[in-house]
Amino acid sequence: xPFTYNRSVRFQDTDAAGVVYFANILGxxxxxxxxxxxxxxxxxxxxxxxxxxxxxxxxxxxxxxxxIFCGDKLLISLIPxxxxxxxxxxxxxxxxxxxxxxxxxxxxICIDVSSRxxxxxxxxxxxxxxxxxxxxxxxxxxxxREIM
Length: 148
Prior knowledge:
The chain is of the alpha+beta class. Helix content is 33%, strand content 33%. The protein has a single domain, classed as Roll (Thiol Ester Dehydrase, Chain A), CATH 3.10.129. The longest helix is centred in the C-terminal third of the chain and has 25 residues, at 123-147. The two termini are 19 Å apart.
């Protein structure tokens, strides 16, 4: 099953029109990413303050299918995928009452902090990607059996 994260939309997430400000949905997705790392046993303090390696986002994309308002109870499903030896992508499905209201993607690259040169993903991230891939594949197989 893909990793899921529950999040209530807060007033601070919204704009003057009362809907989630477009950039804030990426912040909510990043919260889900952090939660999935922690659920996998990765020490977030060490992960984000590691002086030798970083995982900057090099691409982000969001599609909105309906407005999201303060107080909405969101379910964010996170589906990471390895794209190469030094990069990965996370697809997010943001749902409200079982209806997908937005989708997002973030693409990350692994770099050496001091030289800013690409490097291979460390084993803890490769393991996180593999475990999430297996969980997602199992959920898709279960869903396919339910449909039949």
